[in-house]
Amino acid sequence: SQVPLWKRQKKDITKEEYDEFYKAKFNDFEAPQRVMHNTVEGAVSYTSLLFIPSKTPMNYYSQDYKKGLQLYSRGVFIMDHAEDLVPEHFRFVKGLVDSQDLNLNISREMLQHDRKMKVMANKIEKRIQTELENMLKDDRDEYVTFFKNFGMQLKFGIYNSYGMLKDKLQDLLMFYSSDKKELITLKEYVEAMPEDQKEIYFASGETVEKCDLLPQVESVKSKGYDVLYMTDNVDEFCLQMMRDYDSKTFKNVTQGDLDLETEDEKKELEQKTEDNKPLLEIVKKALGDKVQDVKLSHRLKSHPVCLASGDGVSFEMEKVLNQMPDAQGVKAGRILEINPDHDLFKSLQSVYEKEPVKIDEYASILFDQALLIAGFSIDDPVEFSNKITKLMIEASK
After folding, report:
1. Torsion angle, CA of 237/178/210/348, rounded to 10 degrees?
2. How many domains does the chain divide into?
3. For position 222, what pLDDT does the model report?
């Protein structure tokens, strides 16, 4: 009789043998990224042979995907998917466990309450955790490959546990850095923060490129602060559950007041706001319930306008929540912010002085511009196009 692979000594098993066993046993065309082969002796003795796939399974994020490890007792197969042996946040791990301490006739219901199973599950979780931490520390490129495949699962782990797994998983997370132009950890972000920086800044969008084009990112980067780009749907929900990292709170650059101005800049903006109060009020009136407020802002540098959201739901959260089957029409508050130093604002002032009746049209165009920049669709693209065409014709006369 042939001795099962997992019962042989590790030193006698080649990488090729591990790879072929994995591909045949778990129906994968690719060799695994990592192999974890362990024999544990003690109150509960077992052998585990675990694999981290090198690619995300096609059905991984569908209901068809079944997590869990194959379970054996003294080499005799008991169960194909023992879900309780691997935690949800490490559900990507495939493999098997063979223990001599389990009864051959144990039922699935009994396994769920078996103390020995819980002991094995805890040890397996720690083994996977250690493997990932060592991979990040010793082979960064390999860890980045892993994270691109399964990093979203770690984020879901924090979100689904309402932050209870924060301490376990936070140092395994990676996000794209606007400064480094690559994925970095939160620890690396905090270590590189200037002394005067108090918060961890992030921007959300469909892609890194779209995040980088957001007007609000420009002002934060101009202060010498790095911005993390969140491109997965779960990112903001994960950060919301984490609340902070190393006592540094997370700050969305498109939400609320960034408070990056000096006292002199704040006084200057207050004066400009007071001087242009009637204009801002008429723009707000023109937009009606589309906006919570219209105000001048130092959040912008080279861009004329942007949308900021109030406290609570952010724009990206709104998009994600409204994509769900039971969407409730969640809507983030919209604040139209205008750059008082941009030539477009000077044109708006001129229109207000000479042809105030046109302010409604200008307000509509500015708001639609801001919506498009924020990644939203506009109510009437044809009307928007016609207004732009009209302005271009008038400007050429």
Report:
1. 100
2. 3
3. 92
